[in-house]
Amino acid sequence: MKIIGSVESRTMSSPERSPNRETISNLSELLPELLAAIAKLCTSIHDYISFRGVCRSFRSAATLENFDREWTGRLPWLMLVSRERKNEEESKAILDSNSTRVADFVDLFEKKTYKIANFPPLDRSMYLSSKGWILCFSSADIYLTHPVWRIRIYLPGLETFPPETDDSPISISKIVLSDSPTVKTDLLVMVIWGEKNQLGFCRPGDDSWTVMDSSEAPFCDIIYHKRKLYAVDSESRVVECDVHGKNPVQLRQVFSIPARDNVDRIPPHGTYYLVESLGEILIVARHTYSVETVFFKIYGFDLMDGCAGRRKEIRNLGDRALFVGSNSSFSVDLSKWDGVKRSNRVKRSDSSLPVAFSSKLDDVKPNCIYFTDHSVRTNGLDNGVFCLSDMKTERYFVQCAICVFPTWVLPSF
Question: Going by fewer Cβ within 10 Å, which terminus of the chain is more open, N or C?
């Protein structure tokens, strides 16, 4: 596994007040064992970042091993990436794909923004995320990077995919990880790739990507569930692949919405998502007309039913919220967050959200679907929140300073 990087290269916003030199000197004399024990008590990524910023001794204790990665009660961040501009003239120029990027990670619960300068450039129109890691493209490399630790895990190049029949450039539109690279060494990286949106996978250290069996229709989304890969295509068919089995490229159809149910089919510019929620796999249908998402429908189904097409429409998510877009789709149980209701009363003037971020996201609400843009047709503007209780969509907009699509990142650090 080729990994480079250092937590020292991270540049994030500093605490509002810095301790004086005498305080730092006293704190640096604390025993490493005591500092490690304190670090393990940090269940908030914000507290962990502040802990790292105290002094060198604290930073040494704030390792991935000392962070409670099993604590799952985290809300996602919205990743906004813009070009770094040094002057007004440069802001008017069209910068090339290798220009410096600045990433804002917007925490909607804490109403805080964490800024990372010199974020890796990319040659595509979006970043892809899974389990808190970001897939980046450069002119020569493709790798996973961590938004806090700035570690890089290199993957086989795009040129190792089979060439497209029309000589189109290879791209990746979706990624899902079998686990966080910091937790599991036998990491499997699964993707939707190419113009025809087919499936593939690799492990860090592989020389090339492994391509799975082809499908009649392009795939829309993938998830990793109980050591198997599941994918949904544009015809609402769900396939299963035992990626750890004897034949890891073979696809088996396990579900499909009957063709007669045209009302459940998405229009040409819509898409399907797969979301695991409370142990159940959900199909989320995104209905988009022209350049705007109008509404969503959610279906639950039983994998044991095979292709019988029996499913139930889910009209109420309870305390859950779904997050979909260019990220690997996920569900968050908001009942674990006692502070969410209090957060709902925080006013915009009390927050530190970026100027380029104008939205209706003053709170994180249950029974909602939070979505980001998924198509180059809409130029990154089709973002919003769909509420199942009243079937209405509230939109949030990202101004033109943003150069790639917004992306949900679950801070599972």
Answer: N
pTM, two decimals, is 0.81
Q: How far is CA 174 from CA 105, 127, 384, in A?
A: 20, 9, 20
Local structure of 126: helix, strand or coil = coil
What tokens were used for 16?
Answer: 């509002």
Residue among 98, 119, 117 at smallest CA distance from 11:
117
Q: How far is CA 188 from the centre of its chain?
A: 16
CA nearest to 131, candidates 168, 180, 169, 189: 180
The two beta strands, 330-333 and 384-387, are unpaired
Query: Angle CA(397)–CA(400)–CA(406) in degrees, nearest 5?
Result: 55
On the question of pLDDT at 396 being above 70, the answer is yes
Please report how the helices 45-52 and 32-39 are oriented relative to each other, as an axis angle in degrees rounded to 10. Answer: 160
| Maximum average pLDDT range among 184-188, 266-270, 377-381 | 184-188
Q: How many CB atoms are closer than 10 A to CB 157? A: 15
216 burial (CB, 10 Å; 0-12 / 13-18 / 19+) is: exposed
Residue 333: strand pairing partners: 320
Phi and psi based region of residue 197 (left: phi greater than 0; alpha: psi -120 to 50; beta: remaining): left
Are the C-beta atoms of residues 172 and 218 closer than 8 Å to each other?
Answer: no
**102 falls in which pLDDT band (50, 70, 90)?**
confident
User: Which residues fall within 8 angstroms of residue 29, CB to CB, at 6 or more apart?
Assistant: 57
Q: Which residues in 265-306 belong to E strands, given as ranges?
A: 271-277, 280-289, 292-301
How far is residue 96's CA from residue 284's CA, in Å, rounded to a whole number? 36
